Amino acid sequence: MRYSALILVLAVLGFVRLSAQSTTTATILRPYITETSPRSLVTGVDSTILTIRGGRFQIGATVLLNGRNLRTLRQEGDSVLAVVIGGELLLWADIATLQVENPDFTKVGWRIGIADGCGGSVWGIFNRLSPQTAIALSQSITITLEVQPPQEIKPDARLFYNGSPLRIVRIAPPRSITAEIPPSLTTTSGSFALQVVQPRGCQIVVPFELTPPIDTSLAPKITRINPIYFPPPNNTIHIFGINFSANAVVRLGPYFGTVIRATSNLLSVLLPRNLPIGFFALSVTNPDGQSVTTPWPLAILGINTNSANTTLSPNPAQTTLTFSTTLDRASNLTLTLRNTLGASVLAEQHTAAAGRFSTALDISTLASGVYLLEARYDAGSQWVQKVVKY
């Protein structure tokens, strides 16, 4: 009895081990294509032999062109397939899809051009399309296709968008054609073919891309910045808001900051050193192109070189500011008051003797807000202070 129980336990353990081994997932190796010969096809021929080079082609692999099965002529190992493309598949210029599908259902796709027999090019190598892309917004889009020799646009040419005829706006033989894509055809994003059909069936085919509309609800927004006057400690500022990307670009006027910490609600940014004094708008731009700019500029105050001996009072002020400083020697002194746009709203020049100097600035006619007062001396030193007018 004990011997039978032992055999039963060993059998169960063996079954569990086999079951565990059978559930191991094998890595799926898909076929791939590196090149075709010829690299593109031509309309108006009876048939074409196409050689496909790549790897992991299994015996019995199926080759399709635009979903139509092709006859396999030969297979060399797992890296070469030669197929026959019948003339019935080469009636129209196109950007076709070539596909190799293995018996185990792994597959690979490849785009191949079918050029017309009249000198056209499906890849647009000699063609210029303007615009090349647009946003799918259900609105009309005017496009212009220009060609270079030896291609020509005939006066009776027709233009099709994914098989639908377009209204011709203008034809300027022999080089350009302009047409309008109606709103009904611009509702869906994707890649589409523009076909210029000319006499004798000649065609020029170029790709056109409609991109999805940008979701403005995901645009970044700034709610608060700390600090708002510079230079901050360690030259680092913190931007609070929503919809920030980890790869967002932060700019202070024309200067770029370095994002050192990023969440969807907070960006910590290291600013360049030695920024010039002034007011600069701060912007955050996400990788999708959506951005936000502060409606208020940030003030860069610089270093107060004479801060120990210079005062400004009262501050905030309503009508008059008194600027006082102590000079080691006589100096030409320039006082400039700037608004948040950096424009000068008040400027005075003084010839000051050595010792204590004081002057009153009339700000009674200025609008309430934040200003910067700059004091510049002959020796090149300067003093900058924020002023609040109420």
Please tell me about this protein's structure.
By secondary structure, the protein is mainly beta. The protein folds into four domains: 32-115, Immunoglobulins (Immunoglobulin-like), CATH 2.60.40; 127-211, Immunoglobulin-like (Sandwich), CATH 2.60.40; 216-300, Sandwich (Immunoglobulin-like); 311-389, Immunoglobulin-like. Helices cover 5% and strands 51% of the residues. The chain contains one helix and 36 strands. The chain has one helix at residues 2-22, and strands spanning 32-37, 41-42, 47-55, 62-65, 68-69, 71-76, 80-86, 94-101, 107-115, 127-130, 133-135, 141-147, 158-161, 164-165, 167-172, 176-181, 190-197, 203-211, 221-226, 229-230, 236-242, 249-252, 255-256, 258-262, 266-270, 278-280, 282-285, 291-293, 298-300, 311-313, 320-327, 331-338, 344-352, 355-362, 369-376, 382-389. The strands form nine sheets. Strands 2-9-8-4-5 form a five-stranded mixed β-sheet, with no helix packed on it. A five-stranded mixed β-sheet has the order 11-18-17-13-14, with no helix packed on it. A hairpin with a 5-residue loop joins strand 8 and strand 9. The radius of gyration is 36 Å and the shape is elongated.
Low-confidence stretches: 18-25, 120-125
Roughly how many Å is the radius of gyration?
36 Å
CATH topology of the largest domain: Immunoglobulin-like
User: If classified by CATH, what would the architecture of the largest domain be?
Assistant: Sandwich
Shape: elongated
Number of domains: 4
Name of the CATH class of the largest domain: Mainly Beta
List how many beta strands DSSP finds: 36
Strand pairing plus helix content: what structural class? mainly beta
Oligomer kind: single chain
